[in-house]
Write a structure and sequence with these properties.
- The complex is a heterodimer of chains A (about 70) and B (about 210).
- Chain A has one domain.
- Helices cover about 35% and strands about 5% of the residues of chain A.
- Chain B has a 5-stranded mixed β-sheet with strand order 1-2-5-4-3. In chain B, strands 6-7 form a two-stranded antiparallel sheet.
- In chain B, helix 1 packs antiparallel against helix 2, helix 5 runs antiparallel to helix 6 and helix 5 packs across helix 8.
- In chain B, strand 3 and strand 4 form a beta hairpin.
- The chains are: A mainly alpha (about 70), B alpha+beta (about 210).
- Strand 1 of chain A pairs parallel with strand 6 of chain B.
Chain lengths: ~70, ~210
């Protein structure tokens, strides 16, 4: 298998013209999270939407599952 | 996929507690069963943004649009397909594997860049091009009124693109932003330049670069 191209953050680059391997995408999760934190820190899940009722019913009052901490990625 | 393979996949997805992994695994499975019936789906919305950014944005909805279909995706056909996954509800929105899956309208995509592809655990996942997601989120962040959640998404998408985490055609971003469908080039250029400055890297739109 060819090694993926790496971004400036160290995450394997999501390619434009060929499929990304699952393992490569997984390997970049932490770096991608850290990049996002540099420009928009914290969890940015919307506080409400038109799907609120069904989401809060399914997720015990929340709008989705809790996110993993960056160091767990 | 045979029923045993589907059952194993569903068990894995149902047990998954990481929201981002759960979305992409389910996207892979749903895409696979639709593909077997001649239909290609594209992931749009929050799940697509999460794929590019790991941005802690996604909620409990997994949204698809229909890219192509060999035969009309009638309500009956959609119900038959989703029945394989023991989904409840329909005919455009179902509960399955601990998430809500919405199969919306045809994929409206102005980008000339390719739909991105991920070799998911149960089959290929097709994801809306990052170029159009950027321009769209910048638009939503400003119009009809300022909307901070969309601005934060746009910033994260831009950061990922600027650092090369997703291969991005900046000329296409510019073309889309100038298209009459968006007409937000000034806003896009400003935000790109601001994020590049925050990241202390060159901007594709800076005159000195």
């Amino acid at each position: 298998m060819n090694k993926p191209k790496l971004s400036k953050s160290g995450a394997p680059t999501i390619p434009m013209n060929e499929p990304m391997r699952w393992a490569d995408w997984l390997a970049g999760r932490r770096a991608r999270r850290e990049t996002g934190q540099r420009v928009a820190p914290g969890i940015i899940r919307r506080a409400s939407s038109s799907s609120d009722q069904r989401l809060r019913r399914l997720f015990d009052g929340e709008r989705g599952l809790p996110f993993k901490a960056t160091d767990e990625l | 996929m045979n029923p045993t393979q589907i059952q194993r996949a569903l068990a894995d997805i149902t047990a998954e507690t990481d929201p981002t992994l759960k979305h992409l695994k389910l996207a892979s499975l749903v895409s696979a069963v639709f593909r077997e019936r001649g239909a290609e789906l594209v992931v749009v919305g929050g799940s697509a943004i999460e794929f590019y950014t790991e941005g802690a944005y996604v909620s409990g909805d997994l949204d698809f649009c229909v890219e192509s279909a060999a035969t009309a995706l009638t309500a009956r056909l959609r119900q038959d397909i989703m029945a394989q996954l023991q989904a409840t509800g329909g005919p455009r929105s179902w509960q399955v594997g601990g998430l809500f899956v919405d199969v919306l309208a045809s994929f409206e995509n102005l980008a000339r860049t390719p739909i991105r592809r991920l070799d998911g655990p149960y089959g290929e996942v097709r994801i809306a091009p990052v170029e159009e997601l950027i321009v769209e989120r910048v638009l939503i962040s400003k119009y009809p009124v300022d909307y901070p959640p969309a601005l934060e998404c746009a910033k994260k998408l831009l950061a990922a693109a600027l650092l090369g985490e997703s291969e991005t055609d900046w000329a296409e971003v510019e073309r889309l932003a100038n298209d009459r469908a968006y007409k937000n080039w000034i806003d896009v250029r400003k935000l790109v330049n601001e994020q590049a400055q925050t990241l202390q890297i060159g901007s594709p739109y800076h005159p000195d670069e």
